[in-house]
Amino acid sequence: MRKSFLLLLVASVVLCARAQIGWRNDHTGIYNETGLMQSWPADGPELLWHFDGLDLGFSSVSINGEKLFVTGFTDAKGYLYVLDKTGKLLNKVEYGTEFTGDNFIGTRSTAIPHQGKVYVVSGIAELYCYDMQTLKLLWKKNYAADYGAENTKHGWNGPPLILDEKLIIAPGGPTHNVVALDKTTGELLWSSEGMKGISGYGTPIFLDDQEVPQIVIMMGDHILGLDPTNGKMLWSYAHTNRFSEHPNTPVYSDNCLLFMSAYGQGALMLRLTDGGRKVSPVWEMKELGHTMGHVMKVGDHVYGPGNRTNWYCVDWQTGEVVYADNTLAVGNIIAADGLLYCYSEKGEMALVRPNPEKFEIISKFPITMGTGQHWAHPVIHEGVLYVRHGDTLMAYKIK
């Protein structure tokens, strides 16, 4: 009886974990799906449904169980939408004022569902915690008022990192540079001064395979490694650009961290040494530096968009450019079932084979619904490809 109970418990935990999709799945952009289509028809995979009316926004969809979460912007207000997997609207709540400070108006940060709660960060740097079932507001934090933060030039973006009972956020500023909150109550657990600079627009990652497990975060002017138990800074490395913004989540593999920034800075690889207590530079490359497209490591190579027009394949170890190709407009990238999914800024969704010999597009189709920029990162879950384009969320059958 006890053995059966334990097996059932383990199975439930695994199913729960598989049913939850956050920012780029688990921050890596890798979706652990199998049996997906290895090519698409000329006019694209079957469109299962589409939901119109999200209004302005660049945030991706997130998933918990049978519910989809996505944010949108109307009349300077932000809204959290909850849909089911048929595209039916289940609930909607206004969470507050949104960012209107530049030409690219719309929600930015992906909502993060987790253990009965949903965390939303607005473009004006306010963090909201909602009950997942009722959308009742449980608590909120204002990064400026509560932590002395200064907003980024293009509005706040990075969703929090959930680590055990902690919610890790990076407000920036001279005192509460990076902080850990109790994910249930919002209570401050620890605060780190870091390097006292402004925030970097992105989201942290957690490394658990070093002798010293750590949080890694790109702030505006430095990359930081922090002890998750108390916020103590383990190491820092100067890295910035003219806007002090770094939206792309770091890529970690083989004791190395790859950071990609835009605005002329490009890519930087650091190697962790001394059990994770120190870092040393490995290589830099100016061309691999898209604003928000991210990169994917497959085997010994990195695939991703560059500053302007090219998709790059780069040697992971050396930073050497293997090829640069402009067949497809640059955009963002995820991976699943051995293939790359590239969503271009001109609205083409491409299925690409990770091939160090050439940029090999297997299939592609246009995203014709929706409005504005094609900036939201696509999501794959249970054989469905979710694509958000401005006011429209689309679901395509790819299995």
- Main sheet: strand order: 1-4-5-6-7
> How confident overall, as mean pLDDT?
93
Enumerate how many helices there are, as a single number. 3
The biggest beta sheet is recorded as:
5 strands, antiparallel
Distance between the termini: 37 Å
CATH topology of the domain at 45-157: Thrombin, subunit H
Structural class category: mainly beta
What is the correct CATH architecture of the domain at 45-157? Beta Barrel
The percentage of residues in β strands lies in: 35-45%
What is the CA-based Rg, rounded?
A: 20 Å
C-alpha geometry: globular
Oligomer: single chain
Helix content: under 10%
Q: What would CATH call the class of the domain at 45-157?
A: Mainly Beta
Could you tell me the number of beta strands?
34
Report on the structure:
It is built from 3 helices and 34 strands. The strands form 8 sheets. Strands 1-4-5-6-7 form a 5-stranded antiparallel β-sheet. The protein has a 5-stranded mixed β-sheet with strand order 2-28-29-30-31. 7% of the residues lie in helices and 45% in strands. The chain has helices spanning 2-18, 24-27, 143-147; strands at residues 20-21, 30-31, 46-52, 62-64, 67-74, 77-84, 89-97, 112-114, 117-121, 126-131, 137-142, 161-163, 166-169, 178-182, 188-192, 205-207, 214-218, 222-226, 233-238, 251-253, 256-261, 266-273, 278-285, 296-298, 301-305, 311-315, 321-325, 331-336, 339-344, 348-353, 360-366, 379-381, 384-389, 392-397. It is globular. The longest helix has 17 residues, at 2-18. 49% of the residues are buried. The protein has a domain at 45-157: Thrombin, subunit H (Beta Barrel). The protein is mainly beta and 399 residues long. The model is unreliable at 1-18 (pLDDT under 50).
